[in-house]
Amino acid sequence: MSLPKGFVYLSEIDSTIKQDMFYCSDFNFVGRKINGYVNPVAILTIEAATALKKVQDEVSHKGFCLKVIDAYRPHRAVEDFWAWANDPKDMKMQKIFYPKYTDKSQIFADGYLAKFSGHSRGSTVDLTLIDSNGNDVD
After folding, report:
1. How many angstroms separate the first and last alpha carbons of the chain?
2. Per-residue pLDDT of the chain (138 residues; tens, 9 = 90+)
3. Residues 104, 88: contact at Cβ < 8 Å?
4. Going by C-beta distance under 8 Å and a sequence separation of 6 or more, which residues neighbour residue 18?
5. CA distance 119 to 133
6. φ/ψ (deg, to 5) at 130
7. Could you give the CA distance from residue 11 to residue 70 in angstroms, rounded to a whole number?
8. Can you give the pTM of this predicted structure?
């Protein structure tokens, strides 16, 4: 897939950063692959990917690794989240991902999701640190 000018696949900048793009799977708060996510790869602006590489270089010296969970988010995905939040019957992942919500429409009001996501600009990333065994660091 050809990317817009200024965007790169994160693996082209740093292939050592782990990627667990769960919106391309059934294991996420919706419980299915999200519309707009084609492949489980992180896409970012060149500037954001380069910044992550610098952080990866620093944390790797301490025995850690970055793991990216979400990066560029197509607008179709944001629309899919909105449609899901407005379907009160679809609560299949509530116990795992949003146990305090019985009314999903509150998820946007509380800031858990945004109708206009910064991820759609390509410089916002959700990530965590993992240890040398691949376990998330608390």
Report:
1. 35
2. 688 899 999 999 999 999 999 999 999 999 999 999 999 999 999 999 999 999 999 999 999 999 999 999 988 999 999 899 889 899 999 999 999 888 887 887 888 887 777 888 889 999 999 999 999 998
3. yes
4. 65, 66, 67, 68, 130, 134
5. 29
6. -125, 155
7. 14
8. 0.87
- Alpha carbons 100 and 90: distance in angstroms, whole number: 15
CA atoms within 13 A on the CB side of 74: 14
Q: Are 69 and 37 in contact (CB under 8 A)?
A: no
> Which of 42, 40, 35 is CA-nearest to residue 71?
42
Buried b (16+ CB within 10 A) or exposed e, 108-137: eeeebbeeebebbebbbbebeebeeeeeee
Three-state secondary-structure class, residue 67: strand
Given a contact cutoff of 8 angstroms between Cβ atoms, the answer to whether 10 and 44 are in contact is: yes
